[in-house]
Amino acid sequence: MRVILPAGTTETALIEGISAAGAAPALMAHTPSADVEILEYGRPTQSPVTPVSPSGCPTPAAITRAVREVVGFDVSVVDAGLSEPTAAPTVDVGATPGRDIRDPVAVPDASSIYDRAREFGASLPDEALLIGETVPGGTTTALALLTALDEPADVSSSLPANPLEQKRVVVEDALDESGLEAGACVGDPLEAIRAVGDPVQPTVAGIAAGALEAGIEVTLAGGTQMVAVAAALRHAGLEAPLSIATTSFVADERDGGLQAACDRLDCDLVVTDPGFDARDHVAMNRYCAGEAKEGVAMGGALSLVPDGEMATVRDQFETIYARLGMGDGESVDGGLPDRSPADDAGDPDAPATEGGRGS
Amino acid sequence: MRVILPAGTTETALIEGISAAGAAPALMAHTPSADVEILEYGRPTQSPVTPVSPSGCPTPAAITRAVREVVGFDVSVVDAGLSEPTAAPTVDVGATPGRDIRDPVAVPDASSIYDRAREFGASLPDEALLIGETVPGGTTTALALLTALDEPADVSSSLPANPLEQKRVVVEDALDESGLEAGACVGDPLEAIRAVGDPVQPTVAGIAAGALEAGIEVTLAGGTQMVAVAAALRHAGLEAPLSIATTSFVADERDGGLQAACDRLDCDLVVTDPGFDARDHVAMNRYCAGEAKEGVAMGGALSLVPDGEMATVRDQFETIYARLGMGDGESVDGGLPDRSPADDAGDPDAPATEGGRGS
């Protein structure tokens, strides 16, 4: 099994209140670069940060890596518009960082990125692929893409309290600035992405389309962002079978809405619960409290874990958490974080408290 | 274990008679791009050729991949000056294709490539690395580097009849054009590489230097090209333990000379024989006849094969040979190639007869 990980950025993540509150914008740009180093090497190697939420919830990359260390799968990272260097090897599809979706054009090269990604996908020798993503701000651009395609627009968030209303205002502005109305791009997903999307979307969609045309089985590994990509593929006329694999954290938040979205798009839905509620580990507690939820192919990777091996994945996640310099994971007060966000922000010795996923 | 594979090009490979006779220059430029696709995916995916010598001897990448499919090791490809696109993920160290060493400056950015490669090497989390190379023309640039450093200059070749005299003439011209005499760069290896080297050399040397400084064990996987890199490292003042791992094909050709070179440079030498003489397979026969010999970390990869597993590697090499569309490997006439080079060149249906390693 190969996991493809398109990693990119969009200036949309810098919009206040959408991005993880308190995270320095300059550091957030490192998040996808650091995520792919964690996936490739087991920890950030040249990136200056370990991505965590403001309250210290570690990036889903740590969990995807834990699965990789237990199950063993190939990884191919695709540069889908990184804005900071990474020491992970990346495939080039000509993508550059995405602009703020409130600019008239968000992804000028959406079509050429899609074409190159499609060629890459079609060339792969694998029988099955999982395609994930890491892009701060990605749920906002997903909302914009769904809106432009006139699909039910309802997205998840890496924050426990989803700032959905604010995202809707941003999307409204974005469509206005592009001279589009909601639903204006039905049947033309690349135009929608060009106007109000991000560069990871045409990369994932192109790889998926190419691979499906080559007879490769494709699973989109993610939550609502992958619903948006699946919608783009269906609007492009692609009828091949398609699956979405995500975490129970996304599925639970969406309360049946995710299944409905998948039904509408004729996608199979696979939901995996990593069983984090079985442990009193501070990071697992935070996931159970609704932080992070998904990203960096986490749900797809979890779907590869054989029956009976999930406890080993949790053990490995604890090991990686410690390796990332985040402590021993012991929580106090019945599962609450052992340090408050305020403590984190003010502690100059805190090894990994900056950055954030931003969506 | 991680295998790092810097892959690059130098226009030096285009000098007539040094490169594999008959190989079209435009195709040879694809060799390293295709090699890393074979290592990553098991066959060329987007590259238009499977690299073979004019007589049909397949690239060592096929053997390194066979070892990977049996033993399983991580691979990180580094773009050390590729001139054609590759679908393999690559690490960026800012390298561009090398110029003809008879130009006044062959690698203008040798120092910055070295610095970035060193940073990359120092950042890696591994306990041990194997560092290989794929660069057509690389033994000629190795000869030039050794000559500029006043080290005994005696290199191997991917051709059965080593055009060593011709290489020496090229190196003499190269030094002349750079205003240097043999031995002019003693103690200044980056100046030697800048003048008469190739971009793979500062990449390998930089990664090795950074890794050694970080306490990572380093094995240079290759033959005389790695002797040249080891010489560069020693001339840079690096005193850490260093190993070279190569194939019996290189060691046998060099008749004790390789061990002497390693002794002089205080390097351990590991030689592995893949036992190709145990089979009557056309590709293995060609290796036994002195073609290709080494490259794409072949010798280093072979050194990872546990006792008793080499027959499995040979089986896997046969599988890959067939997968590459090169036939079933059956030879006729007691081990001679089943098609002559002339047949290959004239057969429009031949799936894999172009390119070549060129050094």
TrEMBL record, chains A, B:
<dbReference type="InterPro" id="IPR036087">
    <property type="entry name" value="Nict_dMeBzImd_PRibTrfase_sf"/>
</dbReference>
<dbReference type="Pfam" id="PF02277">
    <property type="entry name" value="DBI_PRT"/>
</dbReference>
<protein>
    <recommendedName>
        <fullName>UPF0284 protein D8Y22_07045</fullName>
    </recommendedName>
</protein>
<dbReference type="InterPro" id="IPR003200">
    <property type="entry name" value="Nict_dMeBzImd_PRibTrfase"/>
</dbReference>
<comment type="similarity">
    <text>Belongs to the UPF0284 family.</text>
</comment>
<dbReference type="InterPro" id="IPR002805">
    <property type="entry name" value="Nict_dMeBzImd_PRibTrfase_arc"/>
</dbReference>
<dbReference type="GO" id="GO:0008939">
    <property type="term" value="F:nicotinate-nucleotide-dimethylbenzimidazole phosphoribosyltransferase activity"/>
</dbReference>
<feature type="region of interest" description="Disordered">
    <location>
        <begin position="328"/>
        <end position="359"/>
    </location>
</feature>
